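Tutorial sheet, problem 5. The two components below are modelled jointly, 807 residues in total.
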Amino acid sequence: MSARLVAGLTALALATAAPAVAQTQAAPTTLDEARAQGYAGRPADEPAGSMLGGLLAIGPGFFVHGVGHYYTGDEATALKLLVGELLGAGLVVAGALVAARPEEAGRAGPLPISLVQSGVFLFLGSWLADVVGTFKGAEPFDDDTSRLGGHTLGLGYRYVGDPRTARRHRLVPSLTLDSGRVFVQPSAEIEPNFSERRFALDVGGRPWRGASGRDHVAVGARLRRDESAAFGYATRAAEGWLAWKLDLGQLIARMRRFSITQRYAVGIEQFQFGASPSDVPAPFADADFTSSWFSLASGFAFNAARRTHLTLEFVQDPTVAIPAASAQSGLLRGAFSHQYRDDLDIDVEVLAGDGFSVALGLVYAL
Amino acid sequence: MRCKTLLALAALSVGCNRAVPTREAAIKAARSVQLADDLRVELDGALITTCPDDLTTPEGNDAPVVCVRLTAFDAEIRVVDAGCGPRPVRVHVANASADAAVGWRAFRAGESTARAATRACCETLLSPDGDGRHPDWTPLGPEVTLDALDARSCGESRGLCWTSTTRPGTDEAWLTPWVSAPPTEASGAACVSLAAPQAGALRAAPFVLAQRVRAPLTPRATDDGPALDFAVVGNTGEDTASLERLVERVNDEDVPFVVLSGDIAANGSEEALDRARRVLDALEVPFFMTLGEKDADGADPVGLVDRFGASTDVLLLPTGQGWQPKVVLLDSAEGGLSAKTFAALPEYLAPGSPPGAAVVVTHTPPFDPSGLRGAGFKRRGEGARLLAALSRAGVAAVITGHLNEPGADVQSGVEIVHGGARHFVRVRVNEAGRVFVQRSD
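Model answer (structure tokens):
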């Protein structure tokens, strides 16, 4: 019922919003006009897309990355992709060796998790880049329209499809104050009858930003307070994180505006247990137990349409809304952000693991 | 394994983790079997299992055979017969301890209005003849103990077997040796149809032959008073030789039972599970087992329950001395508990009657003591939910598997013991509710 309500409100918000920004420039009708408007044609050193090359990249190319680019004559990129494959395989092997150490037995630790996930990511990424780049040729992806900088107000709803909890509907308000270099984001996630609630404060900065502004390295900290009046516990957590987003076009010309993303976090959490399942300890009451954790997310991001940014990530994070798919796996995260207007984004996030979570939000620029 | 590999490689992580509810369904399904439209066997503290290959039945006898695996030290096997004429059922119990005894009692699964009124008003004063397990049933006679030799008439050292025959039409029942022919029509009075109007409400109630298998646990005297001992083994995985060695070691330990904390098999394939089960069959005492991710990895839930019993269960340890500890098995093979297990936790962890310490055995620890390694529950909120429940219930100790290195720590007042690999843990629970844990190689 709540889901329908939120969907209805969203539809209402969209219906009452102004139409998308109109085209201000007429489409060119001649090559000269197109050149006058900035069309530069395909770079001489970038071959056109190839159907056969793409098929080669899919087939034998899975085992020898770069076959597709090699077929189209881009030998330098083919070599980079092959190096990426070997490096990825090497990281997986290194991670497996580290995980096999007796002190890591039972489950991989942070180092082998990072090595294996980065290795798999690099291996699959170089293959994917070969396939996509060969099919597509020199045509770039659309400009990255993900919002970066500026102050926003977010109103969202999350549905948690986890059989372990009957409390599946969450309201997710947030406020972002972002100067581009530094940002502060208080947020909350509240179950409507208030039995489950999460309050968080993210503070971060981007010490490096690329020319486009979208490439960046960011560091930050997150303070979090979870309270469960259903199960009688609360937590206080502090987390430090490092994240980056890099346009792959800087390494592989045909993958311009296709970004890879990575996020590492280490946190420490204090647990407080109530005397009964409905008892939530006070925020500054003594902690009963302290524990730390590590999380990792790897993925890629690109504009799937002119104003629609898509991020797909593999996430290993024990603090998110639903558990990983299995004891030795993680979650798949898909985030879709459509810039409906210059001052309004529609965000959708899907988490899939042992259960699923769908979040729908509107982000208003202030 | 295939599913996990796909997850790792392609990040297709949706819907590959549905084994826990299916195992729960398999456990529930194994608690009863319908032998005919009006003949059913129900189990309490036991599960239906596959009969051993070498179990032979007397020639010319086509009575149905029900093979059972005990999951409690006081189990009940009920033949519920809504029919009329004599019907035999052969019962085989695979894992009873050497001194287990069989008793039986017949009931009508209902009571007269007068008896119900007597119970309601003055049960303490008048104490109508009844049964503690089934107070609202009408016993048809006192409990009878089956002769020990008759109960082992299939010749196995640890297996119990007998033939039970019910004859609702005359309110008669018999337990006879496995090898002898069951009573027939000619051995009793004429059969009366229960559907007849003159049968009355009580006569129309199903006839129940309740057969109890009790395995007494005898506390041993220690410096801290009388105590019960048991061993916990886990984390052998593909190292079958290590499991064999531990089984030999435990057999030398003089413990009345063994609890397995999971990851006993290399993986969930039929071959690996069979290999592990064959090794465990060398144990000289009953074993009870929860599962690890290796055992459950791609395994058929029905096959797991058939081989190893209930992976989530409460094992009461009757001492007969006014105190009764319990071992709570929690299936965390998927790195967390199922929704049903979470919902049942308050019941599992509630103080018993008579009182006694609770020891929890689960494969995955709620939290990894090393923190960053992340070998605890997949979601920390669920770990907190379990730890909060354990802490509130005053659970004396939690024995886990999963981590290969042994260790112990105290989390929110609960002692968490990580059994490690290539070791076993000897647990002693005493009358005062204290738990002592000792690790042995």
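Marking note: The CA atoms of residues 47 and 137 of chain A lie 6 Å apart. Full credit if you identified this.
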